[in-house]
Amino acid sequence: MLNSAFSYVRSAFGTTAIAKRGLLNIRKQALRQFMEKGEKLEFPTAVAPRATLVITAHNHAYHTLACLQSLQPFVDSSIEVLVQDDASTSETSALLARCVNVTVRRNQENRGFLHSANAAAAAARGKFIIFMNNDARMLGGSLAEALDLFEALPGCGLMGGRVVQANGGLQEAGCVIFNDGTTNGYLRYEAEDDPRALFLRDVDYCSGVFLITRNDVFLKLGGFDPCFAPAYYEETDYCMRLRQAGLRCIYNPNLRIEHFEFGSSTSRRARASISANRMRFFERWQAVMAAEGYPAPAKGAAMAPAALRLQQRPRRLLVASARNFDAKAAMALADSGGSLTVFLMGASRDQTRQAIAATGMRVEMISGASRRAAEALMAARKGWFDEILPET
């Protein structure tokens, strides 16, 4: 409990300008050194790319450099890197001139994220489009494997990743939409390796910090709706439209992204845009949310049923001793349909991680000290589980 409280305070404080000043200085110094040394940033030549990775950038060249450098280990010749420079006035042009095999498109005037993203998508050559904030960095996972999974999952329309804050702690493990139009990242401020965050599932939406979608679907649906310009709620609205078209939004925890939250905008300006666009979103989707039973706003542990509401039925809970846990049997249960939560009693941190790996991040894994903790979970999610399986 104390560790969780400490994580919350550290991460929450880290969204303020004062706490981030040190991180900003490090990135600014890295940009200065890069430019002074005349370095270049080279990517493989993209031939008939499978995907186009789109980064929109307006100033803050130090973030763009950090973003591009983070991508080098993950990008091969099947991925086109495209930077949409939104009329930057800083060192961005000079930086991009040092980038080899990066497609650069420039707006003549500052149009904002939404219009820049739409323009880049229209010019993208890939079957898939990967949107990424310039104040984000890729930390782990495989883009090729994510694209393979996207195509293998029936009805997948969008895929996002596990987003962590630049100073540590989760920003989101998938996002939740509430019935008043407010939203929140699931497990925000918790540890980035929290077992509850480490399973693949359907979600309400994934934030535009990093998301993958099919470009033909994006263009067919009209891209991000300009009514949400310059930014915020455009990806939330897009995910609603995807589901109305019968497609799914998938959270993939293997994709690990770091985000320098409010790195490209002041928090005050961002919150003003969020407030205005929430009302636009609510007015558009109020009837749908009411008809489909979207949950009331919730926080903390009460948020789990809202975050997991798209889990398929029957929803099963398996309570198992860490010593007797059978990963193959759990996988067989998961493959039989519905969804599975495993409560591991007496599991160490390493045992929990091993169980998560053995089940391929396909089941929700929760650990606790005793049967009493399992009962507390059942009480917190009263009515949510359809079946409680015999203890093993």
Short note summarizing the structure:
It is built from 13 helices and 18 strands. The chain is of the alpha/beta class and 392 residues long.
- Share of helix among residues? 25-40%
What is the second-level CATH architecture of the largest domain? Alpha-Beta Complex
Count of the domains: 2
Distance between the termini: 27 Å
CATH topology of the largest domain: Spore Coat Polysaccharide Biosynthesis Protein SpsA, Chain A
Give the number of helices.
13
- The backbone outline, from C-alpha atoms, is globular
What would you note in describing this structure?
With 392 residues, this protein is α/β, with parallel strands linked by helices. It has two domains: 2-284, Spore Coat Polysaccharide Biosynthesis Protein SpsA, Chain A (Alpha-Beta Complex), CATH 3.90.550; 311-389, Rossmann fold. The protein has 13 helices and 18 strands. The chain has helices at residues 2-13, 17-36, 61-71, 92-97, 112-123, 143-152, 215-220, 234-244, 267-291, 304-307, 327-335, 349-358, 371-380; strands spanning 41-42, 51-57, 79-85, 99-100, 102-106, 128-133, 136-140, 156-165, 170-172, 175-177, 183-185, 201-202, 210-214, 248-259, 315-321, 339-345, 364-368, 387-389. The strands form four sheets. Strands 2, 3, 5, 6, 7, 8, 9, 12, 13 and 14 form a ten-stranded mixed sheet that branches. It has a four-stranded parallel sheet with strand order 17-16-15-18. A hairpin with a 5-residue loop joins β10 (175-177) and β11 (183-185). α2 crosses α3 (61-71). The longest helix has 25 residues, at 267-291. The model is unreliable at 1-16 (pLDDT under 50).
